[in-house]
Write a structure and sequence with these properties.
Elements: H1 9-23, E1 27-28, H2 30-39, E2 44-49, E3 52-57, H3 58-70, E4 76-81
Antiparallel strand pairs: 1-4, 2-3, 2-4
Helix pairs in contact: 1-2, 2-3
Amino acid sequence: MPAINLDNPAACVAAIKLNARLYNGGIINMIDLEFLASHDPWFIVLIRYSRGEIRCPARDAKHFIDLITRDRGDSVRDISILNK
């Protein structure tokens, strides 16, 4: 796995995206999602849950995850980045 320069947020965002694509099948965790939301808020992520999927900007993902788990009682299967 390539080293990440933590002093450069743009490099961290690029590393998160690259690592997710190369090593995790595009899936990211909540820590990566929060970092993307704060440093690349308009980056589109895919939220898959038991009844379907939602594509949204990283900054809105936590809101949709809360709605899915609270109101519908569904579970989130994974959060991933879209391949371009």
